[in-house]
Amino acid sequence: MLLILSAVCVTLLNTATLAATENETIPDCDYFDTVNVTGSQRLVNGSYLYQGVVIPAELTAEFDYRVLPDDSTEPVERHLRGCVCQLRPCLRLCCHHSQLMANGQCSGSIEVDLTRLNPYLSVTLDDGTVARRHFQEEFIIQSDLPIPCNDMYPLNDQEE
């Protein structure tokens, strides 16, 4: 009887471990296509509203790690992520949109009148044509990913 009870406990532990592992992934979604939706509005059907996009519950999962630029991971506080880049194209920024980058580092919080900025980006489409896209209306802005910013391009129409 003790042997059967031990086997049941081991099976339950393995099932719980497997469930936790499965809960930390979103099928067919790369970590870098997700955003932290912990503070986002949860809808009655289990979906989340993030930057005007409804992320279905099946495209969310809890994570207790973050991926580093070298694809290694580090443990972090458990948080909810949603695979928003499957629903709308994402634009990865090194800094939060209210910060400036100087010498490879994000710094300070600035108050910018966004109406003074040109919100359009020239985007090369799959067929090679170039289209102008409004970065705030047509993209999801990601700024919390650990990406090396030395290899990024400035989004400043004053620089080439």
UniProtKB/TrEMBL annotation:
GO CC annotation terms, alphabetical: plasma membrane
Signal peptide boundaries: 1-19
Residue ranges of domain Methuselah N-terminal in the record: 29-159
Membrane-spanning residues: none
InterPro entries listed in its UniProt record: Methusela_ecto_dom_1, Methusela_ecto_dom_2, Methuselah_N_dom, Methuselah_N_sf, Mth_GPCR
Membrane topology, record value: Multi-pass membrane protein
Pfam families named among the record's database cross-references: Methuselah_N (PF06652)
Top-level taxon: Eukaryota
Family to which this protein belongs: Belongs to the G-protein coupled receptor 2 family. Mth subfamily.
Name by which UniProt lists this protein: G-protein coupled receptor Mth-like
Source organism: Drosophila pseudoobscura pseudoobscura (Fruit fly)
Gene designation: LOC26533489
